[in-house]
Amino acid sequence: LLITNFIAFQAAAAGLSYVGGYVINTYKSYDNFLQDKYALLPAVIIICVAVVMFIIGLIGCCATFRESRVGLGLFLAIILVIFIAEVSAFVLGFVYREKVKTDVQGTMHSVFEKYNGQNPESTVVDYLQEQLRCCGVKNYSDWTTTQWFNSTGNNSVPLSCCRQDMKNCTGRLDQPQELNTRGCAAELESGLQSVISYAMLVILGFAIVKFFGMLSVCVLTCKREDSGYQPLYSG
């Protein structure tokens, strides 16, 4: 149990903090395409659990070393609460992983429609297409239905659609070999679902650690205190 407290719990706290921060940072990069702000809830729960784990891990070490039944009982209750929080975060992650597809498809068309090459939505769209190496919502031909495409009249898509290995790309549709032809919706959905799946696996792994930690505390708490000596009474 001491090993669990010193290594597993502190390592779990550090690992969960990293995962929670990674999920939040990824979400903020593409929050313009996500309607449901509660999708951050699993990541917030993860970070809160990590902070509590770091503090409680130190307390648990003291209680384990002293073999205090009251301290171990309190430690067991706290671990149980953390375990429930991690299970809740896992379930929420599963729910929001399935909602990502609907959320992305419901907003991406409207964001792309606002593209004019200068406004904030344009910056977001260009960033998305450059980072994910994609073009359009479903494919690069989606740009032909936008107001920006019709207003320019040069039969080209934004330069952010150009492949990175093409130095002289002009974005013209009659040169599709120079463009990223895959749609951004599928790429973004896949990326966000991968991040959530990664977070869920980490949460599940540390939840298993908590489960064995609870078993260890139960065994230590229920252990009979038998020193092998008999008390002496004076007559």
From TrEMBL:
It is found in: Membrane. The keyword Transcription regulation does not apply. The lineage of its organism: Eukaryota, Metazoa, Chordata, Craniata, Vertebrata. It comes from Charadrius vociferus (Killdeer). Belongs to the tetraspanin (TM4SF) family. The keyword Transmembrane helix applies. The chain crosses the membrane at residues 7-27, 39-65, 72-96, 195-220. Regulates the proliferation and migration of oligodendrocytes, a process essential for normal myelination and repair. It is a multi-pass membrane protein. Its main location: membrane. Keywords: Glycoprotein, Membrane, Transmembrane, Transmembrane helix. Interacts with claudin-11/CLDN11 and integrins. InterPro entries: Tetraspanin/Peripherin, Tetraspanin_animals, Tetraspanin_EC2_sf. GO terms for cellular component: plasma membrane. This is Tetraspanin.
